[in-house]
Each structure stands twice: as C-alpha cells, then as structure tokens.
Amino acid sequence: MSTSRTAIHRQPKIGNWQSLLLCLLALALSACNAERRKSDAELGLNPQQAAGRRVYDDQCQRCHEAYSSSDKNGPSLKGMFKRPYLASSGLPANDERVNEIILYGRSKMPGYAQALSQQQVKDLLAYLRTL
Ligand code: HEC
Question: Would you say 76 and 65 are in contact if contact means Cβ atoms under 8 Å apart?
C-alpha cells in the first residue's frame, strides 16, 4: 500500500514540473512572437523584394502598417494588391496608380520622386505586392 502510494505520489510531481516548464516555454514563445520582426527569409522575400522592404522601412513604415490592418498616420497597406481597389482612396490597386502615389504623394503623404531612384521604386512595388 505504501509503495503504490509513493509511486502515485511521485509521478504527478515530475509531470507538474514538466508541464510548468512547457507553460513557461509557451509563454516565452508567444510573447516573442507578438513582438518579433520576421526575417526576409521567413517572409519568403526574394532579393528585390527584400531591397524594397528596406526602402519601406526607411520611408513608409512610420505612416503605414504592412502586417497589421490598423491605420497609422496613413491607411494600412496590408493586402493592398489583393483587392481590386485601394482601401482608402478607392483607386485601382495596380502598379501604375501606386507608382503615381509613391512619386507624387497624396494629401498628407509626401511624394518620393526626388528621394527614391527608379530602381528603389521598382523594388518597393515588388515588396508591396507581397503584403
Ligand atoms: C507622412 C506619412 C506618410 C508617409 C511617410 C507615407 N505615406 Fe502613404 N499615405 C499617407 C496618407 C495620409 C495617405 C492617405 C492619403 C489620402 O487621403 O488618400 C497615404 C496613402 C497611401 C497609399 C494609398 C492607400 C489607399 O488605400 O488608398 C499608398 C499605396 C501609399 N500611401 C504608399 C506609401 C508608400 C509606399 C510610402 C513610402 C514610400 C508611403 N506611402 C509613405 C501617409 C504617408
């Protein structure tokens, strides 16, 4: 009787310890995931798209969200090319219109015709198509 009791007593003790560790691990992982910036490789970006992402980080991300649909100083650009029309302006979601918006700006958005090279705008468009 006393042996079986110790056996029952011991096993759950180890189990609790392990599940506590698992809980801590899961907690740490989920906390990291919420904050962590994905790498270019994790996003599956090719070199051109990755170059466009750097332009985006430098010039656009202070006003636009890329991976969340919440607005910042400008509308979210998440999934912008997945719909036929841009969410905020209602303009057709194609390279020509978005190219114009980037070069000449819109209302409170500055234009980038001077700041970005043609290649940088091309890279940026390639990246925006991945959102
Ligand atoms: C200072 C803030 C700011 C910066 C920086 C900025 N934008 Fe904007 N952007 C805006 C605002 C505000 C609008 C909404 C304009 C309007 O009223 O139509 C906008 C609109 C847009 C739109 C149209 C969205 C829609 O749904 O109609 C696109 C595309 C866009 N921006 C891309 C970019 C890109 C790419 C960059 C970086 C090169 C950038 N923006 C930089 C503020 C900004």
Answer: yes
Chain-centroid distance, C-alpha 91: 24
CA distances from 48 to 38, 44, 112 (A): 17, 11, 19
As to burial, measured by CB atoms within 10 angstroms (0-12 exposed, 13-18 middle, 19+ buried), residue 68 is exposed
**Predicted pLDDT at 25:** 65
| Same-domain check for residues 12 and 73 | no
Residue whose CA is at the smallest distance from ligand 1 atom 1? 109
Find tokens 């992402």 and name the residue: 53
Q: Looking at the domain assignment, is residue 61 inside a domain?
A: yes
**pLDDT digits 0-9 by tens, 47-103:** 999 999 999 999 999 999 999 999 999 999 999 999 999 999 999 999 999 999 999
Closest ligand 1 atom to residue 89 Cα is 27
Domain encompassing residue 29: 1-36
